Records
---
Amino acid sequence: MENLGTKEMREMAWDIIYNRRSVRKFTDEPVSDEDLKLILEAGRWAPSGEDAQPWRFVVVRDEERRKALGKISAQGSGRRFSGEFITKNLHKRFSSLEDEEKKKAIFKKLTSGDVSAFTGTAPVVIAVIGKKDVWDLPFDTSAAIENILLMTTALGLGACWVIAPCIDIRDELKVKELLEVPEDYKVISLIPLGHMDRLPRPRPRIELSDLAFSEKYGSPLYDK
């Protein structure tokens, strides 16, 4: 790799991190083989405990399989958020939203599962799976997924980290059957990716002064 110097590399890294978004709307333009390989290589070079490298990537381009993954994702989200609605947890989460019509629309989108149905509309879906017998599996695969998301951003593409079809074992088994995933592997996440239909606006972030502490929790490292 060409040595760009500390300042240039720092600026490039920050630009990629800052501009990463969870993208849920894609164009029909296909993802090139060259870009896809770079994205997968980024995942491959993630760190892992004891260098276990437990991740495996199933790339899905077939339209029918992608639609099936979208349907499973919608079912998983719908079931999950319906439970949140029944237990009133959704009401607590959106208690600060005063627009009742907007709140009603959000509840409908979440409980119907539409919030994750977009998975099937992306031109490419990467299923991240991992070996069950690896001790640090969730942490290792999370590192690989973040690398994938950042490289996707660096290439001017968009992606989203979707866990809806992986939380409930019933949904995971459907994904495993569809993709013929071996029994000794677990489905960790789906990553729909492609060319962005639009770039979502950045969401507010908690101030660093409220996140970083000095020596002990509650003692701010930085002033507001």
Note: The chain has one domain: 19-197.
---
Amino acid sequence: MITAPAFDATAWITQHTLGGTDLLPEATEAVANFTMMWNLFEGVLCGNHANIREFERIAQELSGGQLSAEETASLDECLAFWSFRYRTPEGFASRFDRLNFRPNDKRNLVEEVLSGTRHELSDKALALMIIAYRLRNNLFHGLKTIKTLNDQVHNLNTASRCLGALLAASHAHLVRSKVFELHRSGGA
């Protein structure tokens, strides 16, 4: 059997790109974590077709179920982070514009959720998915510099946490629930 040697993207970037030596290990880890979490989210919840219509369906399904206190807290923490990141006392910061919303991306809904004028779980979940989607599209399709990646660590970490909370709240077949863990350990 032929095996391929492991590839170290960080080492390659460091050796072969301008500014590559400035790439923070935290940025590499954040990108890797987000990529993995997006892969699971899109494959498990979106049937490999992430789009606004799928996000609306997922948001409606989540709003019909019971979220644990932990899942609710995780989603609220993500909303709080992005509200702080994208809003100023005067309105929305230029960072928000750099999410590069497309016409069908429901920017107004995201603004209303981050502003605190929409409180429904389905609206919050949809806004979180849209923000993560914009980050995904900007990461995978946009031209990035090393500095841009370094500046996205907290943003990508929050998006990964958010995707994990959405996956857990969905009770998808791939995600082990607390009930499963209790049963497996012999607990009540």
Note: The first strand starts at residue 87 and ends at 88.
